[in-house]
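Journal club prep — side note

Before the paper discussion, L.F. wants everyone to see what a predicted structure for a comparable chain looks like in token form. Sequence:
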Amino acid sequence: MIEDNHATLKLTANDQLDIQKGAELIIKKGGKLVLEDQSQLIVRKKGKLTIEEGGEYIVQLGASISSEPKAKISGVEDRIEKAEFN
């Protein structure tokens, strides 16, 4: 999934987005990712999250981005939680 040209992907309260193996979420210049309070973005093993230069992301208090081992995340400056899944 690619967000650009002023497109916004917004997760609201209690929403969860899983980026599975082989899938990628790319936020390009002009695109925006917004995680509102109590939403969650999970990058699974071999999934990818890329925030390119000029892309924007907002993670509100109470929202989270987490990743499994071997997930690829780039362009995100905040600390990402390493999640453990059974």
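L.F.'s comment for the group: The two ends are 26 Å apart (CA to CA). Keep this in mind when we get to the figures.
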